[in-house]
Amino acid sequence: MHIHWVQHHVRGRFQVDLMEWLRQHIWPEETRFGDLSFARRHAAAFFADMLRAGTTMGMAYSSPHADALRIAADATHGDWLLGNSIMHKGAPEPLCEASPDNAEEVAPLLRQLGRDRYVITPRFALNCSAELMHELGHLAQTENAFVQTHLSESLNEIREVREAFPEAIDYTDVYDRAGLLTPRTVLGHCIHLSKRELACLAERRVWIAHCPSSNEALNSGRMDLEAIRRHRIRYALASDVGGGPSHSMLHVMQRFLKQHRDAGAPSTYAKPSIAARWPVRNASVAAKKPVTSSRASGRILFYYRARQAKSRPNNGWRNS
Fold first, then answer.
1. C-alpha pair distances (Å), 295 with each of 70, 115, 256, 281, 301
2. Distance (Å, rounded) from C-alpha 72 to C-alpha 45?
3. pLDDT of residue 1
4. How confident is the model at residue 203 (pLDDT cuts 50, 70, 90)?
5. How far is CA 42 from CA 36, 97, 119, 245, in A?
6. Which of 33, 91, 107, 206 is disulfide-compatible with 95, CB 3.0–4.6 A?
7. Which strands make up the sheet holding 234-237, listed edge to edge?
8. What is the pairing mode between strands 318-319 and 310-311?
9. Rg (CA), the chain
10. Is 168 a residue whose pLDDT tops 60?
11. Domains held by the chain: number
């Protein structure tokens, strides 16, 4: 439900801190997607690998380049929502120049790909002005469009957001003031949230993309699963490649169990540990809910199209 297809080829280049990792490794690589042949090659490789891993539906971040976004849309296998990262500030100049800097540049992409395939994608608060986020929030609400962004992934990120938006109560309030928090919004990570922020997310009925393998790899912290559940905030599992080292949802499920069991998170008030069925549900049925399109259902959240994948155990191929 949260993955960066343009980072697929550089997964595993970890740093201790998110911001250092973005600036030293990820953003310089993403500038290369202005080269259309480079974009075609990596789009084909990414979606082929996702298909081999059994993932046929998702919500993915592209680079800011509109042509790379269109290339990815043509290369998909299955039902994918895609959005070009909107980042007109706070990043390398080639990325800022390639990015839309107003909602009028985003609206044509929404019309071209359609509401079922395009997701409005302000990368995160540090890459967008308050004015631009307000425009994008208005567009999302007017068009009933999907939104994806990142929230409270690292403590250094939160500190920089606080300095950049002193008028906001907290990080969540930056997005809320802009009208970006809706039932069609998917927020990546959401690790370091206050009680006020949790209450706000619950009231706005957003989705959280919980990325345990990425959170672990970048040493970002553990999402407070108990608090998310207490506030009845909807969440699903995500690989977050390239922060996450693997696009396999089986790996993500394993890291989910390990992290939360080690932290002593209860599965119910009566049982002491996380139930094994949780990651299966939140990597499959729950993960489909926010991205199930009206092409498949006519109604978001209430219908799921079945798909088959094949797994290859030691005794040969079989349907699963």
1. 19, 10, 31, 23, 13
2. 10
3. 81
4. very high
5. 10, 22, 20, 17
6. 91
7. 119-120, 146-151, 185-189, 207-210, 234-237
8. antiparallel
9. 18
10. yes
11. 1
196 token code pair: 């006020």
Q: Which string of b and e fits 231-257 if b means at least 16 CB within 10 Å? A: bebbbbbbbbbbbbbbbbbebbbebbb
Check if the beta carbon of residue 170 is closer than 8 Å to that of residue 157: no
Cross-strand bridge partners of residue 237: 210
What is the extent of the structural domain holding 139?
3-319
Whole-number pLDDT of residue 277: 54
Question: Is 79 within 8 Å of 291 (Cβ atoms)?
Answer: yes
- 194 contacts 170 by C-beta, under 8 angstroms: yes
* pLDDT digits 0-9 by tens, 33-52: 999 999 999 999 999 999 99
Instruction: Say whether pLDDT at 194 is over 80.
Output: yes
Q: Give the model's confidence band at 269: pLDDT under 50 very low, under 70 low, under 90 confident, else very high.
A: very low
Q: Are strands 57-62 and 3-4 parallel, antiparallel or unpaired?
A: parallel
pTM, two decimal places: 0.87
List, in order, residues 6 or more apart from 157 with CB less than 8 Å away: 18, 19, 124, 126
- What is residue 247's predicted lDDT score, i.e. its pLDDT? 87
Cα–Cα nearest to 157, from 186, 129, 126: 126
Read off the pLDDT of residues 98-140 as tens digits, 9 standing for 90 and up: 999 999 999 999 999 999 999 999 999 999 999 999 999 999 9
CATH number at residue 50: 3.20.20.140
Question: Which conformational region is residue 301 in: left (phi greater than 0), alpha (psi within -120 to 50 degrees), or beta?
Answer: left
Query: Where residue 206 falls among pLDDT bands split at 50, 70, 90?
Result: very high
